[in-house]
């Protein structure tokens, strides 16, 4: 079958794994970070670590959108539900993330929260229910942001007065540079996200290779993609010539997706934004810009200040920075499971803790 | 306050906890405590099995079947995998006010057709109408009695390391056919539910060398394998490349981020058979129309490590856990 089985070919996997073993001979141990949650899931699901020599360590990064969304965002989303006439529309993953008082999933019985498969579904819900105000929870990286931008542009064109977005969108690059600046973090190379790069292209990573001397390889999600990406990083480490390479050429163009980028720039503006466990990073979030301010839920509905309680014992922050692996957390697989998650990393299908729980216990 | 959620009904870990800690604990008796697909009862030296199931599927009509066919096949298959020939069914329907007569007629006719195929009769029934919205269109409960085959010798205690794990064909079709039939996803596919009565297939293969059978419905193959491993106290390992999955199911589940191993089936039986007879049983299975794609997918391992492992397509090994939370909203 095209585009699935070829990239899971056992023979090619063996050859790549052999080449990696050969490559690391005489090299110092390397720590490679896969930035994206889908990479984390794929690595665990396919048992990629089993194919790597002891000197190659893979750690997970801050690339799962639900995981990096701070608890304060969940608390605010829950607070929106208390305003009369409002329905909050969200992707399913957000439902089970614990807020300070409850989860969004606990409010479904009151008809306050609805799961949608896309932002456009939320806009259509607004069109069909003119007496209700629909707030879409806009979370996600550059992969999902253009679809939200397209929907907001559509809502403006249709002059929808009851559709709003609570924007918690994130940009991946500031998080990667923050990790490069963090002394606790020691990264020999980045497996750069596949789908985000399909939108932003290869050039934004130049700064990481040039300023921080860290190899960057944009890599697909299949086993042969990941192994080839790792081999390309090792080659760069060995040659001491860090650069940005594109392993995922069948999808990612150097210039990215211009149409999507234009749409994002038309609707969104960057601002400082809070990341779970990492803190506030400058210019790392996206909010609706002035032209689209009438769709911005935060500006339209005046919420009283929402108090957020910090999580006790949860080490999501260190997990998101790749400093610690999930089994090092005292709550992992005990108090914190996919059915009773404490931190967001256990909730999302792309979360590092969820991946470890499912495939590696 | 503790609440019942949809996840308590998805066939996964939460549901198992609820069944054990609430129902089996309070209603405890030697038959129920075995937690089989059907209870084995002795009536004047005649061995019978008895089971019940409720059907709440949305949508009620889907490619490959409807709630009527499903409510016969579901109960018939529970009897079949308990090593019995299904004989008698009861059928109770709860319908909401305003339900189309034509739809009810169509459902009844498909119950008739499925009964004929399964060799069973509906010998008792009940019909209730409730106010609109009190049920989602129509809920059906069926219960069934079957006669245990004289040459069946099923028992979890007979499962031993080295036994082979087999299945009678492609997995995942039912769940995806139903998912696509719901209009929320807004795309089309040609996937058809595997919903079918297994009495013919099972009566053609039943023998003393088949040690255990279960139909991998809610929670899919992965969850059923974990149930078996928990109950027999042995580890199990299965090979991803031997598990039959159709091209369409593979592609669609990939696109939706779902795993076919956790998708529900309604016409599949997972069997554990002794190593020496497995290939003979396999060739008999393949001769039946519902078993053409049958395969040996793995084997029972030792008692030291009681987990289920998947040997992946690329030659690595990982844990294959029970279904945790729903992959998507409940579909059967």
Helix proportion range of chain B? 25-40%
Per CATH, the class of the largest domain in chain B reads: Alpha Beta
**Overall number of strands of chain B:** 14
User: Architecture of the largest domain in chain B, CATH level 2?
Assistant: Alpha-Beta Complex
Give the termini distance of chain B in whole angstroms: 27 Å
CATH topology of the largest domain in chain B: Phosphoribosyl-aminoimidazole Synthetase, Chain A, domain 2
The CATH H-level superfamily of the domain at 67-171 and 256-300 in chain A is HypD, alpha/beta domain 2
Proportion in β-strands of chain A: 15-25%
Q: How confident is the prediction overall: mean pLDDT of chain A? A: 93
N-to-C series of helices and strands of chain B? HEEEEHEHEEEHHEHEHEHEEE
From the helix content, strand content and strand pairing of chain B, which structural class follows? alpha+beta
Can you name the CATH architecture of the domain at 67-171 and 256-300 in chain A? 3-Layer(aba) Sandwich
Number of helices of chain A: 14
What does the main sheet of chain B amount to? 7 strands, mixed
What is the element string of chain A, with H for helices and E for strands?
Answer: HEHEHHEEHEHEEHEHHEHEHEEHHH
- CATH domain fold name of the domain at 67-171 and 256-300 in chain A: Rossmann fold
Largest interface: A-B, 31 and 24 residues
Question: How many beta-strand runs of chain A?
Answer: 12
Q: Round the Cα radius of gyration of chain A to an integer and report it.
A: 21 Å
| Total of helices of chain B | 8
Unreliable stretches of chain B: 328-332
